[in-house]
Design brief:
Blueprint lengths: L6 E2 L2 E9 L3 E7 L5 E7 L1 H4 L4 H17 L8 E7 L2 E6 L7 H6 L5 H20 L12 E3 L5 E3 L4 H6 L5 H19 L3 H16 L1 H10 L12 H10 L6 H5 L11 E3 L31 H15 L4 H13 L1 H20 L8 E7 L9 E11 L4 E9 L5 E8 L5 E10 L4 E12 L4 E10 L1
Antiparallel strand pairs: 1-2, 2-3, 3-4, 4-6, 5-6, 5-9, 7-8, 10-11, 11-14, 12-13, 12-15, 15-16
Helix pairs in contact: 4-6, 4-8, 4-9, 4-11, 6-7, 7-8, 7-13
Protein name: Ig-like domain-containing protein
Keywords: Membrane, Transmembrane, Transmembrane helix
Amino acid sequence: MNNPGNGIAGFRLTEHTWMTELGNWIDAISPDGRRAGALLFDPKIIGLPGVRDRVVQAVMTDQRLVMSGMGGLIPVADVVAAGDQVWLLTAQAVSPTLADLLAAGPVDPNGAASLLVETAQTLQALHASGVTHGSVHPGTVVVTAEGVSLLSERGLSDAIRARVSPPERDAAGWASLARGLAASLGPGAPADLFERAAAAATALGLSAARDLLVNERGRLPGGRISRDGLARAARGRSAFAQPPSYARAPVPVPQDEGDIVTLLHVPAGSVQPVHFGPGVGAETGTQSQRPETPVERIWREGRDEAATLQRTERQGRAARARRRRTILAGVLFAVIMSGAVLAWLRLGNAPDLAVKSLNVVAPKKTQGCDSAVLVTATVVTNGAPGEITYEWRKNLDDEVVKGTLRTESDKTSYKVPLRWTLQGRSNVKATATLRILTPGPVRSDKASFTYKC
């Protein structure tokens, strides 16, 4: 197997890594020193017939959407093959996710509303362009240091399953986000608003759900939708919260990475940083002179609505008038929500997720100077869908690497890797311990290797 060490195609890999259904995500630094991401696809998945071609097609579709002016998506820089490995490289960081923020506690209600409005707007734009996301959940919603909410892994879940998800699947995923945020807040006006928005998305669509959040923002603290709290939470959870000297360090590009080839047939440099408005260059700020597409119209209207939220009290009075007109709709949503709860209760016979066994394995061979060691854990479940939270601990330092693993109903075995880079002259026994935090009871296992330099 080709081993890219601690870099791939000029991207520097960090030690912050987590597993998804697609494979192993790793926080990275791009060749020009910006935050980025790298996904090493699970070889058992990407090696299936047709999967790699479908993944490449999904990514090329994303690149065309970004170049046409769509915001709200994590831009993909490249998909490369290195021996029997396939990597997806992003031009922007893919952490922290909403799942990371929720693991630390409730999300600020104003920021939660901002996240829901922006993701609904992105999904509407995708649907207007004739595509869907296919896997909307807390692990695919990325929050930037500015509090902007972006979607990652667009179309990849569908690509590995050879399916095309309908817009209703995205609406259901968005509704689940809204209900999860409501549950994290506890009883109160914001939670009630999010529950009603979830019911609206399921019954009437994402446009109605988004309008409900905007028109009834008076139920939020201060009566406004704001990214501020979300931005603070994202900065607090960022794995890149490193000293300035780390951020300025040169990015080492491997001198010999072997047979690394791009799988995307697009002009070099065509993927730009994500845009937040149609046809506006991130660097030049110029507006293209061409007919407005439905995707751009949705983004323009969403942008104008966001600006309107902070203007005058006169507009606030207009919003309150619209809110009064939605009282009847609110009664309808409550009835729909009751039906949704009953339906959920009927499905409640499914078994809860449980971890049956855990086994951590480390290399037996002594590791030499400046080694990047891969420690791998195998987690076996009862086959129920859900989410596993875990943490890696190292005996040689105080770092704790936290992560989440989403399980599926038709799969029982999962790999959880830890990349551990050791440097300097020493002769030590390194031990990595994995603790499964949820679902309980807490389980742990460990493995050791020798480092000698």
